[in-house]
């Protein structure tokens, strides 16, 4: 790569980053329909054609704004599963697996570039859906669920494979709900409530509850 190419690459990244930042701010504030390409270009200090040039249009730019939050979150969760299975030589202890996954799940939310913006995007998307119907499923959910199902089978080979998705959904459902509750109390003046839902004790409870449920599930199946 020549010096000229390197300079051009840096310049291109700078423009794309400015467009992504501007788009995210406006999508949070005005929503997808209320934001125009002209608005984005003006805030990013770019020409209008740059949106189509770098992203192919407003829809694709909207998807990329989401992906820069979702992909790092997905990768952090997959890494947590891979790390615990590797360390245990593919025989993870159930508590260790659930604890590692729960911590990475909540940590990846907290460490995302802008938690407040992600919550705003989610709120708007719930009301007016503009993402492809299967984007979240294919990009985030299925890779995570598939990896977690495999790890759970390594921890408990007696688990019914047909029911594995429901086990994973139950765990993820608890963690997603915790994330929503934390967001609700983020700006609360009630220090006790806010600290309660940000406490490590909540995750410990979820881990204990989930592990007990899985073991009871297996015991119940074996007694049928």
Number of strands: 0
Overall number of domains = 2
Major beta sheet, specifics?
none
Give the CATH topology of the largest domain: Tetracycline Repressor, domain 2
Q: What percent of the residues sit in helical stretches (DSSP H or I)? A: over 70%
Mean pLDDT: 86
CATH architecture of the largest domain: Orthogonal Bundle
Structure classification: mainly alpha
Q: Give helix and strand order, one letter per element, not per position.
A: HHHHHHHHHH
- N- to C-terminal separation? 66 Å
Q: Report the principal-axis shape.
A: elongated
Rounded to an integer in angstroms, the radius of gyration calculated over CA atoms is 21 Å
Regarding quaternary structure, what we see is single chain
- Number of helices, where a helix is a run of at least 4 consecutive DSSP H or I residues: 10
Low confidence ranges: none
CATH class of the largest domain: Mainly Alpha
Q: How much of the residues is beta strand, in percent?
A: under 5%
């Amino acid at each position: 790569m020549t010096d000229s190419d390197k300079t051009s690459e840096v310049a291109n990244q700078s423009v794309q980053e400015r467009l992504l930042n501007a788009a995210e701010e406006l999508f949070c504030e005005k929503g997808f329909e209320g934001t125009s390409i002209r608005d984005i270009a003006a805030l990013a200090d770019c020409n209008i054609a740059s949106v189509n040039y770098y992203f192919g249009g407003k829809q694709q730019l909207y998807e990329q704004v989401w992906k820069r939050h979702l992909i790092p979150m997905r990768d952090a969760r997959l890494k947590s599963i891979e790390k615990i299975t590797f360390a245990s030589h593919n025989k993870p202890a159930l508590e260790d697996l659930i604890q590692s996954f729960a911590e990475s799940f909540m940590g990846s939310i907290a460490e995302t570039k802008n938690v407040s913006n992600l919550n705003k995007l989610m709120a708007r998307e719930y009301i007016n859906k503009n993402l492809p119907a299967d984007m979240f499923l294919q990009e985030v959910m299925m890779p995570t669920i598939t990896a977690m199902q495999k790890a759970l089978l390594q921890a408990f080979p007696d688990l019914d494979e047909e029911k594995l998705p429901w086990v994973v959904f139950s765990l993820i459902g608890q963690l997603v709900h915790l994330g929503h509750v934390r967001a609700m109390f983020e700006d609360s003046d009630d220090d006790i409530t806010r600290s309660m839902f940000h406490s490590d004790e909540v995750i410990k409870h979820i881990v204990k509850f989930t592990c007990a449920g899985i073991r009871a599930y297996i015991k119940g199946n074996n007694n049928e």
